[in-house]
């Protein structure tokens, strides 16, 4: 029954319970919602203001005050001394390759699990399901040794490969769950028309599966774009760092230039926040679907 | 019944690329890690097989291990305790707000940000007032100067400061999950209950709670497993310090393997962590299996 949730997330319902009447409960609730809105958003707003202040203003202790004149120099400092665009490019590159890899590999397997007539489908599925319980950190050490031996440590491959591997279970779970629901008559008629397996996969199943693939894309994007530990363990070259790793090393280095730290954190958060503004609905639904189905 | 009858070769073509990558990069490392747990090894030189000696050290001689287990479990308890509160807020939201999208997506914002951004942001918030830390500045401004703390450097409160950040970040996530769950309860159930005289709190008690149990379980499982595996926030904010006061199982493992270069010992802790995660998932599913049978 949990399958039915997710995609249909927030839909308006004609439920009349209490909406419209202003009772004490409603007022108290709205105060609560307001307080929560402040606690959830104010730290981010504070950071944005902080990033435009000079060190003196930050240390003066008037946390609420706006900067006398916005210190855009914090941002230029951060960009110039912090390789921001390099990190941004690396993150884009790594995330894109991972997303393509996950979509391709997971949809192939999901197709086989959900549509082929063979007896090991459930067993393969089980292998993926067990993997969802395994904490990623437990593989850090052996992976590092393996990568060292095959000489790909400190390359983008050393993070992309495990990224793809760790994202596939949830992707397979979502995609095969969806593909199972496509009526079998579709293939029957395609087979009669003489279409091969690959054409059925590419021309029929994939186009129908775009919505769950979007969910997979969103989950992969959020997880990989933000990933820090693998990147910081396997990558050491400045030129290969991804954004979270780069932000963290910049911030740890410039520990007294508060404004520049704030600016770099804002820059680090900005890409995701922009995407969230554009796609908030899709992202929230995708992540809930990922949680509920996982 | 699936209709596509295909050759073994085709099956292999579809399944093997993904399965091989996955098994090689997830399962093989875990098994290697289990085995390395039986070695004494610094990762580079010779390794000696020492049997269960690492586990003996872990359970009996490591002063950091049990406190880190305790903190990890505390973390799990706090995270799970957040869920009923979140459910309550979700119910209020569903009852009183006509267009909840703005509120829900604002609450959700922290979860999409990298743990590095969140961790460093809160580090600046927790800074001493003299270094521009907001929290202490706020306390001083409202006359609670005596409440100011060294939030991350005082060993007795550093861990709680970290718990708070994690609860703060995940609040919106669980809220949205619970809220979506409640929205998916069919409206006619409530209408029928209203006719029978159950409204407001009563309806929530007899309808929302039982019908939402599967979704409630999802949040509990996510919160529990998430805190057992919790790692990056601590690494970013404190690295397990001061004086191991914020070490969790996972950060202890990381520090042992990568800083102290005790690969064998680190692997033993990793094996313990994997085992705990598997057993915990099993137990939670078992408990909820019984609850669900009882109420649905």
Which stretches of chain B of 5+ consecutive residues score pLDDT under 50?
Answer: none
* Biggest β-sheet strands, sense, barrel of chain B: 2 strands, antiparallel
Global Rg of chain B: 24 Å
- CATH architecture call of the largest domain in chain A: Orthogonal Bundle
- Count of discrete alpha- or pi-helical segments spanning 4 or more residues of chain A: 13
> What is the multimeric organization of the chains shown?
heterodimer
Summarize the structure.
Chain A is an all-alpha fold and 294 residues long. Chain A has helices spanning 24-50, 55-60, 73-82, 84-115, 121-131, 140-149, 157-179, 185-192, 197-208, 210-225, 229-234, 243-253, 258-293. In chain A, helix 4 (84-115) packs antiparallel against helix 12 and helix 10 packs antiparallel against helix 13 (258-293).
Q: Helix and strand layout, with pairings?
A:
The complex is a heterodimer of chains A (294) and B (296).
Chain A: H1 24-50, H2 55-60, H3 73-82, H4 84-115, H5 121-131, H6 140-149, H7 157-179, H8 185-192, H9 197-208, H10 210-225, H11 229-234, H12 243-253, H13 258-293
Chain B: H1 8-36, E1 39-40, E2 48-49, H2 53-61, H3 65-96, H4 101-108, H5 115-126, H6 134-141, H7 158-183, H8 187-195, H9 200-229, H10 232-237, H11 249-259, H12 263-295
Antiparallel strand pairs in B: 1-2
Helix pairs in contact in B: 1-12, 3-7, 3-9, 4-7, 7-9, 9-12, 11-12
If you had to describe this structure to a student in words, what would you say it looks like?
- The complex is a heterodimer of chains A (294) and B (296).
- Chain A contains 13 helices and no strands.
- Chain A is globular, with a radius of gyration of 24 Å.
- In chain A, helix 5 crosses helix 7 (157-179), helix 7 runs antiparallel to helix 10 (210-225) and helix 12 packs antiparallel against helix 13 (258-293).
- Chain A folds into two domains: 20-76, no CATH class; 83-253, MetI-like (MetI-like fold).
- The longest helix of chain A is centred in the C-terminal third of the chain and has 36 residues, at 258-293.
- With 294 residues, chain A is mostly helical.
- In chain A, 71% of the residues lie in helices and 0% in strands.
- Chain A starts with 23 loop residues before the first helix and ends with a helix.
- Chain B is mainly α.
- Chain B has one domain: MetI-like (MetI-like fold, Orthogonal Bundle).
- Helix content of chain B is 72%, strand content 1%.
- Chain B has twelve helices and two strands; from the N terminus they run H-E-E-H-H-H-H-H-H-H-H-H-H-H.
- A two-stranded antiparallel ribbon of chain B has the order 1-2.
- Chain B is globular, with a radius of gyration of 24 Å.
- The mean pLDDT of chain B is 86.
- At the A-B interface, helix 1, helix 4, helix 5, helix 6 and helix 7 of A face helix 1, helix 3, helix 4, helix 5 and helix 6 of B.
């Amino acid at each position: 029954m949990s399958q039915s949730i997710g995609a249909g997330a927030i839909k308006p319902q004609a439920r009349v319970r209490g909406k419209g009447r202003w009772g004490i409960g409603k007022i108290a609730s709205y105060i609560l919602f307001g307080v929560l809105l402040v606690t959830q958003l104010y730290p981010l707003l504070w950071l944005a203001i902080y990033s435009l202040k000079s060190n003196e203003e930050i240390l003066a202790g008037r946390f609420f005050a706006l900067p006398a004149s916005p210190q855009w120099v914090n941002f230029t400092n951060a960009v110039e001394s912090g390789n921001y665009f390099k990190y941004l490019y690396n993150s884009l590159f790594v995330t894109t390759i991972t997303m393509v890899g996950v979509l391709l590999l997971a949809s192939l397997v999901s197709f086989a699990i959900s549509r082929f007539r063979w007896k090991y489908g459930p067993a393969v599925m089980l292998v993926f399901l067990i993997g969802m319980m395994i904490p990623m950190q437990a593989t850090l050490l052996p992976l590092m040794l393996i990568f060292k031996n095959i000489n790909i440590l400190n390359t983008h491959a050393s993070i992309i490969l495990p990224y793809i591997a760790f994202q596939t279970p949830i992707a397979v779970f979502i995609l095969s769950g969806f593909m199972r629901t496509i009526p079998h008559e579709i293939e029957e008629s395609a087979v009669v028309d003489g279409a091969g397996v690959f054409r059925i996969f590419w021309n029929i199943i994939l186009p129908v599966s775009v919505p769950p693939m979007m969910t997979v894309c969103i989950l992969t994007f959020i997880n990989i774009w933000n990933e820090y530990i693998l990147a910081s363990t396997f990558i050491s070259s400045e030129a290969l760092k991804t954004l979270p790793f780069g932000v963290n090393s910049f911030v740890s280095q410039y520990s007294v230039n508060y404004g520049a730290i704030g600016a770099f954190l804002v820059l680090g958060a900005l890409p995701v926040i922009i995407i969230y503004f554009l796609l908030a609905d899709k992202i929230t639904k995708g992540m809930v679907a990922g949680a509920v189905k996982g | 019944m699936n209709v596509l009858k295909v050759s073994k070769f085709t099956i292999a073509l579809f399944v093997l690329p993904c399965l091989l990558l996955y098994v090689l990069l997830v399962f093989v490392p875990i098994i290697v890690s289990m085995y390395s747990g039986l070695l004494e090894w610094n990762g580079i030189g010779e390794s000696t097989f020492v049997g269960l000696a690492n586990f003996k050290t872990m359970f009996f001689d490591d002063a950091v291990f049990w406190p880190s287990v305790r903190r990890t479990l505390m973390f799990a308890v706090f995270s799970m305790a957040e869920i009923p509160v979140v459910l309550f807020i979700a119910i209020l939201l569903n009852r009183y707000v006509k267009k909840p999208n703005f509120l829900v997506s604002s609450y959700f914002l922290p979860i999409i940000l990298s743990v590095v951004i969140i961790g460093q942001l809160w580090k600046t918030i927790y800074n001493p007032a003299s270094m521009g830390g907001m929290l202490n500045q706020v306390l001083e401004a409202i006359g609670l100067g005596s409440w100011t703390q060294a939030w991350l450097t005082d060993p007795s409160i550093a861990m709680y400061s970290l718990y708070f950040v994690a609860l703060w970040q995940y609040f919106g996530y669980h809220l949205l999950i619970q809220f979506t769950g409640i929205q998916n309860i069919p409206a006619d159930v409530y209408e029928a209950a209203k006719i029978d005289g159950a409204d407001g709190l009563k309806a929530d008690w007899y309808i929302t709670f039982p019908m939402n149990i599967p979704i409630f379980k999802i949040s509990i499982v996510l919160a529990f497993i998430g805190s057992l595996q919790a790692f990056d926030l601590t690494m970013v904010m404190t690295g397990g310090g001061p004086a191991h006061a914020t070490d969790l199982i996972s950060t202890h493992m990381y520090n042992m393997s990568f800083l102290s270069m005790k690969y064998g010992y680190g692997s033993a802790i990793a094996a313990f962590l994997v085992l705990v995660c598997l057993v915990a998932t099993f137990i939670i599913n078992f408990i909820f299996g019984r609850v669900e049978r009882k109420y649905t």
